[in-house]
Structures are given as C-alpha cells and as structure tokens.
Design brief:
Structural class: alpha/beta
CATH class of the largest domain: Alpha Beta
Strand order of the largest sheet: 2-1-3-10-4-11
Low-confidence stretches: 1-6, 8-35, 296-301
CATH architecture of the largest domain: 3-Layer(aba) Sandwich
Order of helices and strands: HHEHEHEHEEEHHEHEHEEHHEHH
CATH superfamily of the largest domain: Periplasmic binding protein-like II
Number of helices: 13
Strand content: 15-25%
Length: 301
C-alpha cells in the first residue's frame, strides 16, 4: 500500500491489458461487432468467480429480459482487470467497491448510478472487519505487530483501503511496516480461508462476506473472531460508462431500480432493492484516500 498505491494499480492496469482481452474473447466468444449490441456487466472478483456468476444469474436474466438486449457477464482475476475492461469499452456497467469505483471513475469514466440497500438494515452501508483465529492471543490491532496478515486487493475498499486506514490510525504505521508478513489474498473469501488454514494470523474482510461465509458454514463465529471493525462505509455502487447513450442509461436505471419487483437480487449483493446513487456519495472514501496520501486531490476530483 502506501503512496505507491495509485501508481501500482495504474501500472497493473497496463500490464493486464492483454490478459483482459484474452479473457474477454474466451467469455464472449464473438467478434468486435457484437460489442455494440450486447450489454456487458463486470463483476469484481470479491469472492470465487464461479459462485459469483451463479448468484448473479437471476439478475443477468432479468436485465436481459427487461432491456431486450443480450447481457453478458465479464469477470477477471483481479479488480484492475474489470477496470481496464471498462476503460477499453468492453464492459458497460459494473458492480464496484467504493475504492475500485473511484479508480474506475479516473481510469474508465465510470459513473455511479445505483446502490443496494442491505438486507435487514434498509441501509446501503457496510463495514471492513479484521478477523483472526479465536484464542490465538490477538485481541487488538496493535497485537498484529510482526504478525502475518492478508488483505484482499490494493483496489478493495474493505479489504485494502479501509484496513490500511485503520492500522495507520491505530498504530501510526502503514501495514507493510507494521506487519511481519503482508500479502494480498485476491478475494474476500480467500482471505478468510487463509486465516482458517493457518496461512496467516489475521485478514481483512467485509462484514458482508464474513456473514455470508458464517451462514454457509465455511467459517464460524467460534473460530473466526472479529477484533476490529470500521465505521459504516458507503455501499458498493453499480456504475456505468459515462459515455453510454442517454436512452440506454435511462433504461438500465429503470430496470435496476425496479428489479426487486420481479427477481431475487439479494443472492448476489445481499440487497433487498436498489436506490439511486451519485458520485458525491463516495466523497468520504475520497477523503480517506487523501488522508493516507495515496493519491493527489486532482486524481479523485
């Protein structure tokens, strides 16, 4: 992490162009002429890609039916891959975390337009949590000094930016200087499983993934203890490319905001319905980035 985050992510975007294009060809299996005809939805690899695509299928089928357009799903091996695909106009809309949305805003002209109200809370917010094996002597963030810790991805909000902010606020040090070993697991569930398997002493996660994995029996509250949690964070937005035709935006927005009337949306995003979102809703995340010195003010507008 540290001041190098924007440069690392931006460099990663460039290095992964070829991989993204190959992945696109494999998933879509069509020539360039189909790009203007099909609506392509990008999903971040927050969890296992196969499981995410399966959970998203009801929403994909609903959008296809409602819009009268073929709707394809795009996934990548990391957050940067989805951002790069949108930059190259191979993804039209995508579900982002707040931090990855800001990067997509800079790099790909992404524009937030909807956010899900979390099931059971009627709020779009969620939290970052730090999880460790219960009974291992780690009870506070300061106890992580010299320990092995997994975050999710440099562009993840709850698994990257926010835990960095938490560690810096609590200890005065950046994660790479405070932990004995610092790694990125690549997805939220992988970070939790790294704790379960003893690969690391602790991991950053979102409370959404934590609760989902507990519900599935993949982890338990008796073995995976939360030692710290963040303040409420703005929920992960759904964003489109700003240069999409206005008529298409209107149809997409109407379909998403009314999806709860016709299909089960909670399976993918743990939401009961969607409400309108706007770029300014994520100013608190912009402020957090600036407070850590991770980007210049003009990069996050």
């Amino acid at each position: 992490m540290g001041r190098s985050l924007p440069a690392r992510v931006r460099a990663g975007l460039g290095r992964r162009v070829l991989a993204v294009l190959l992945a696109w060809s494999a998933i879509v299996g069509m020539g360039g002429n189909a790009l203007a005809r099909d609506l392509v939805v990008g999903l971040l690899p927050a969890e296992n890609n196969e499981e995410m695509v399966k959970r998203f299928e009801p929403m994909r089928a609903y959008l296809e039916r409602k819009l009268g357009e073929r709707v394809k799903v795009f996934t990548a091996t990391d957050y940067a891959g989805v951002i790069e695909a949108m930059r190259r106009k191979r993804v039209d809309i995508a579900w982002f975390g707040p931090m990855s949305y800001l990067l997509a805003e800079q790099e790909a002209g992404a524009e937030a337009f909807a956010v899900g109200l979390r099931t059971g809370t009627n709020s779009p917010t969620y939290k970052s949590v730090i999880v460790t094996r219960c009974g291992n002597g780690i009870r506070t963030l300061k106890d992580l000094k010299g320990r092995s810790v997994a975050f999710v991805d440099p562009a993840s909000t709850s698994g990257g930016l926010v835990p960095t902010w938490m560690i810096k606020n609590e200890t005065g040090a950046m994660p790479q200087d405070f932990f004995g070993k610092f790694v990125y697991a690549g997805s939220h569930d992988a970070a939790e499983l790294a704790v379960k398997n003893g690969t690391v002493d602790a991991a950053a996660d979102s409370d959404v993934t934590y609760e989902r994995m507990v519900a599935k029996g993949l982890i338990s509250r008796e073995t995976h203890c939360i030692i710290a949690e963040s303040p409420p964070l703005p929920g992960p937005p759904l964003a489109w490319r700003a240069d999409l035709p206005a008529e298409m935006k209107q149809r997409i927005s109407a379909a998403v905001l009314n999806a709860h009337h016709e299909t089960e949306i909670g399976a993918y995003v743990n939401a009961t319905r969607y409400v309108t979102a706007k770029p300014a809703d994520f100013d608190s995340i912009r402020a957090m980035v600036r407070s850590l010195g991770l980007a210049k003010d003009q990069m996050l507008r």
